[in-house]
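User: Quick sanity check before I run a bigger batch. Here is a single chain. Can you write out its predicted 3D structure?
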Amino acid sequence: MARFIPAGTHTALVTPFCDDTDRSLDLAALRRLVEQQIAGGVDGLVACGTTGETATLTSDEYETVVGTVVQAAAGRVPVIAGVGSNSTAKTLATTRTACGLGVDGVLVVTPYYTKPTQAGMKEHFVQVAQAATVPVVLYNVPGRTGVNLLPATVAELAKHPNIVALKEAAGSLEQIQETVRLTDFGFAVLSGEDALCVPTYAVGGRGVISVVSNVAPARTAALWRDFSAGRADAAAHGQVDLLPLIKALFSEPNPQPAKMAMHLLGLMTPVCRLPLIAATDPTRAALQVEMRRLGLLG
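Assistant: Done. Predicted structure follows.
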């Protein structure tokens, strides 16, 4: 059987919480979210990434969220689980847990706070790839981690048979192009920034791990489908049309605005776990304007 290589639109799912003292998991809302995403035509789901507020989850909650998404997806789309941390030992343990829950792949962020060298990051990812029983997706997001996984390092890691893709969120089209140039077609470079989806596709990217698709799955999925079908003008128009909503969704720390947007859609509460808080009234108003413009709200 061919190994799983992510392509197309994968949603970085928010984690719904109840509006109670403990901000407990709202599993009913999580299942609704999975159904909304699949109905919207996304190609895959990512549970417990940055957007899922994974740093605030207990180990038991992590297993519950990943297990619920796998169960709710029921094989209709692949599920990738975020497993990264700033400790290699912890990342390995989480990787084994996620693999045991039946995920199709794992997403491994560069170790944050510790600021390892390129050689240190390479060894970290190799150890994870050796421990994982499913394919590994690298995740580069320097704005959050303080380190930048360089294209030359990615190219070395791409030689490992179990490292199949990179979610690139450095915000540099030049860096994306260099990574595409240094890796072969069997390795997928995915946009990690919603505002750069179509530009990334245009230079050889194979998809996106998206925040905006939580709110607008069909429109986000259409960007890849149009582009990959040769309708570049339609993809470009769709990207530009989504830009004001994307800007509103990142006007406060992610996923505060995304959860407010999902609340406006009636899918969940806007509750985040501290130190994140519910999005402010101005952000709510901006989201309402853009969601109405796009026909997402009546």
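The mean pLDDT is 97.

User: Great, the batch can go ahead then.
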